[in-house]
Amino acid sequence: MDVLTPKQRHKAMxxxxxxxxxxxxxxxxxxxxxxxxxxxxxxxxxxxPDIVLTKYKIAIFCDGDFFHGKDWYQVLKPKLEKGSNPEYxxxxxxxxxxxxxxxxxxxxxxxxxxxxxxESDIHKHVEECIKVIEECIFDQIICEHQVVEDQE
Length: 152
Fold this sequence. Notes:
The protein has helices at residues 6-14, 22-33, 72-82, 86-109, 119-124, 126-151; strands spanning 39-40, 51-53, 58-63, 113-118. The protein is of the alpha+beta class. It has a four-stranded mixed sheet, sandwiched between helices.
């Protein structure tokens, strides 16, 4: 593992973006190519989802593997415990994970479907991510169709 100087680490952390990341752009381009229109960084919803399909009430989050704690208990947390400033990083990532759960619960309560994709999955399997979104859209259409039939 490469050890960065405090100055190098500061520079690296300063350059991390919170929107229009490469994974968001990759997923958005794939959706656009398939003909889906969306809103990005939708401020009117809890958690400000990265991509929102308002027509289908689907909120999509593109979660960075590190900051959202992918493989938290098996890999990342034990690794952080051995690294520099473990108290800070463990507390930060656990709070991010907790906030994700709180936002998801609120969105579900408001009638939205919520999808999270890991950064590494978007990079390696963007077409599979699109399939998950399309399945969710299909489920929404089926539910709406059943509601209309029940009302008739």
